[in-house]
């Protein structure tokens, strides 16, 4: 089994620290609004990786942090006249519901930043004592990047190159422009915690270092996250963790998934170009969304489109129908099940090649359908399809039948409404939309086009 590590930039034989056990840390959410399909892409990816490792017989300990204090949370809480803890709690509950709806298994622990501050303060003090960090007059504490000779090794950047164009502004309290904050001195009106350097709150990078070390130990087998976290977040995690413990490597295998795009930009909350998971689940099943994600190689970028998701939905329904076929065949089945199982594991052993694994599922489905038509016993084949699908987190649940005879007429009305909107006849367009709504059909206008779905009871 080989895994591509961002640190070494090559596929490496997977050998965990402890035989038969895998420690796995994945960067979690900052809960200040509903999660989007970009989040789904990342967490589906690492859910599949976790499931496959367990399928291989490993005992996996999976940790995913919750950044429940952050500038965005503070700003949103102020705007909604609520507390940061209430806001973060509300949206973490929403996130958990989304993950369950996508059949993503929960982490073994979800440590929250605000509950782990004593560990962070302890680690920061240790780095100061070792000369890797310093407290500024303001009460903020910074990591001294020049104290780590190999700083930049994960992203492939050199400190001298990073200095190009960088300078310390007048009044800047940092010794070096690339020094990063580990403890932020509090501002008036912000939530804060007491520390040896004054009231403040932890820096984002420090949260993950402290949590990974506390819950998984001084060296972690797998650390995952999106490619946008390589620098500075994961780079700075390495710096803090290795300088604190003196143990290298902090992480044995760094895995980063590609980013989901909507148009030319990555999908993100800060950019505002997103489709929430809740919105997507109104139109597509969890299997349809998962198949959309895993049909692409996890390290590649993926572009969100209704057409691609519709194709994945149809594919998911094809798999589910094969698994649900009535088995009334009497002839012995001639499908070589071991060859399918071998092809599946060979694909997944090659850096979690899910497109290859998905291809095996569809090949097996074709064989099941052909064997059914030939009057063969397909029970064992269906059992294997369910077993391998479960490794990828697919439920093979058939969706409730919808009034398909109405679909052509609804499509026609949606097309007419689109034409009315183009001609700026908005009153008539709204009348059409409201009429369909009364009949149990919702239309959603999105940048990539209008989508419609039958309302769920």
Could you please describe the fold and organization of this structure?
The structure is a single chain. With 457 residues, this protein is an alpha/beta fold. The chain has three domains: 17-261, 3-Layer(aba) Sandwich (Rossmann fold); 284-391, Four Helix Bundle (Hemerythrin (Met), subunit A) (Up-down Bundle), CATH 1.20.120; 404-454, no CATH class. Helices cover 44% and strands 15% of the residues. The protein contains 15 helices and 15 strands. It has a four-stranded parallel β-sheet, sandwiched between helices. A four-stranded antiparallel β-sheet has the order 5-6-7-8. Helix 12 (354-373) runs antiparallel to helix 13 (379-391). The protein starts with a strand and ends with a strand. The mean pLDDT is 92.
- CATH topology grouping of the largest domain: Rossmann fold
- Strand content range: 5-15%
- Radius of gyration, rounded? 25 Å
Work out the helix count. 15
Shape, please?
globular
The end-to-end span amounts to: 45 Å
Number of strands: 15
Unreliable segments of 5+ consecutive residues? none
Q: How much helix, percentage-wise, in residues? A: 40-55%
Number of separate domains: 3
Tell me which CATH architecture of the largest domain applies here: 3-Layer(aba) Sandwich
Order of helices and strands: EEEHEHHHEEHEEHEHEEEHHEHHHHHHEE
């Amino acid at each position: 089994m080989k895994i591509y590590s961002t640190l070494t930039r090559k596929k490496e034989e997977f050998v965990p620290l402890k035989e038969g056990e895998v420690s796995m840390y994945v960067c979690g959410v900052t809960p200040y609004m509903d999660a989007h399909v970009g989040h789904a892409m990342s967490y589906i990816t690492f859910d599949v990786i976790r499931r496959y490792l367990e399928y291989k017989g490993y005992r996996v300990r999976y940790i995913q942090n919750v950044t429940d204090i952050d500038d965005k949370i503070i700003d949103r809480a102020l705007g909604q006249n609520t507390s940061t803890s209430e806001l973060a709690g509300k949206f973490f509950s929403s996130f958990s519901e989304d993950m369950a709806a996508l059949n993503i298994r929960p982490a073994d622990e979800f440590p929250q930043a605000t509950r782990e501050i004593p560990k962070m303060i302890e680690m920061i003090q240790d780095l100061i004592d070792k000369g890797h960090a310093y407290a500024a007059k303001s009460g903020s504490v910074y990591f001294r990047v020049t104290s780590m000779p190999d700083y930049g090794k994960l992203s492939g950047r050199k400190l001298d190159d990073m200095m190009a164009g960088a300078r310390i502004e007048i009044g800047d309290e940092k010794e070096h422009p690339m020094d990063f904050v580990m403890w932020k001195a509090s501002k008036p009106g912000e939530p804060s915690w007491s520390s040896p350097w004054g009231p403040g709150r932890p820096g984002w990078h420090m949260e993950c270092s402290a949590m990974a070390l506390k819950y998984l130990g001084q060296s972690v087998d797998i650390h995952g996250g999106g490619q946008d976290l390589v620098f500075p977040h994961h780079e700075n995690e390495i710096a803090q963790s290795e300088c604190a413990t003196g143990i290298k490597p902090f992480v044995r295998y760094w895995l980063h998934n590609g980013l989901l795009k909507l148009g030319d930009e990555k999908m993100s909350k800060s950019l505002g170009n997103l489709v929430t998971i809740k919105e997507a689940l109104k139109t597509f099943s969890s299997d349809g969304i998962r198949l959309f994600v895993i049909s692409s190689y996890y390290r590649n970028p993926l572009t969100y489109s209704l057409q691609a998701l519709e194709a994945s939905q149809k594919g998911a329904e094809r798999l589910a129908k094969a698994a649900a076929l009535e088995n009334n065949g009497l002839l012995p089945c001639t499908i070589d099940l071991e060859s399918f199982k071998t092809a599946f594991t060979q694909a997944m052993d090659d850096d979690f090649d899910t497109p290859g694994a998905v291809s095996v599922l569809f090949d097996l489905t074709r064989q099941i359908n052909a064997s059914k038509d030939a009057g063969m016993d397909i029970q064992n084949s269906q059992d294997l399809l369910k077993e391998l699908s479960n490794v990828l987190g697919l439920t093979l649940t058939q969706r409730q039948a919808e009034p398909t005879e109405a679909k052509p007429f609804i499509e026609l009305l949606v097309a007419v409404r689109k034409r009315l909107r183009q001609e700026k006849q908005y009153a008539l367009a709204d009348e059409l939309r409201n009429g369909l709504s009364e009949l149990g059909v919702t239309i959603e206008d999105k940048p990539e086009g209008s989508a419609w779905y039958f309302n769920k009871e």
